[in-house]
Amino acid sequence: MNALSREDAHRMLNKVPEVTLFFWIIKIMATTVGETAADFLNVNLNFGLTGTSAVMGGLLLVALLAQLRSRKYIPSIYWVAVVLISVFGTLVTDNMVDNFGVSLNTTTALFSVALLATFGLWYASEKTLSIHTIFTTRRELFYWAAILFTFALGTAAGDLAAEGLQLGYTVSALMFGAMIGAVTIGYYVLRLNAVPAFWIAYILTRPFGASFGDLLSQPVANGGLGLGTVVTSAIFLLTILGLVAYLTATERRVAGGA
């Protein structure tokens, strides 16, 4: 371990929140916002994929720098970074498919390989993939790289299921939801190891959230409920803000010994 890593290990607390029900609720909502907000900026505000990608990439960079500079888990900073990386991960896939003509089959395969490579390098370097040990800068960089690829992969897989395989948004959401349920049963009933259970569930929540977001926002003629990207994004963003505000207040009470 180099000097910077030793220093970080002493100075930093774990930078990732505990995996609770609140964690999964906010994460799924963030994935939904990633889908609907990207569509809103791209289509409704006429930013286009390139313009939207540039704006969101800049905001994500600022958020990640703030996250990396913090010495402990701060709910507001962490979840802003998650929402932004969700939007940016969606845009990475959309750019490859729409601007460069890469098929959904290929993008799904490419991001699967990229994610597996990230996990491989992470484990080779740190001998663990546990999110309960994110207390060095190097581990946190591996963590955020993995998160980015889970969002890009989830977007590709969700679009492949709903559009490429023509399953539709409802069937896709139900299918990915059932997979998440199977992982939950595997963890609580069959004693599946916590680390793979977490990452499998994390990957699956992205296409589930994307399919659910499309189901709510897309026009009825396209198989959606017609709420639109503005309403859907607003509902989920406000819910995320409320939950993050609650978690922030809770963290402060705990820190203050209340």
From TrEMBL:
Segments spanning the bilayer are: 21-41, 47-66, 73-92, 104-125, 141-161, 167-190, 197-213, 225-249
InterPro entries cross-referenced by the UniProt entry: DUF347
Taxonomic source organism = Thauera terpenica 58Eu
In this record, what's one Pfam family? DUF347
* Alphabetized UniProt keyword annotations: Membrane, Transmembrane, Transmembrane helix
In its keyword annotation, does this UniProt entry include Metal-binding? no
Protein's recorded name: Membrane-anchored protein
Q: Does the keyword Zinc-finger apply?
A: no
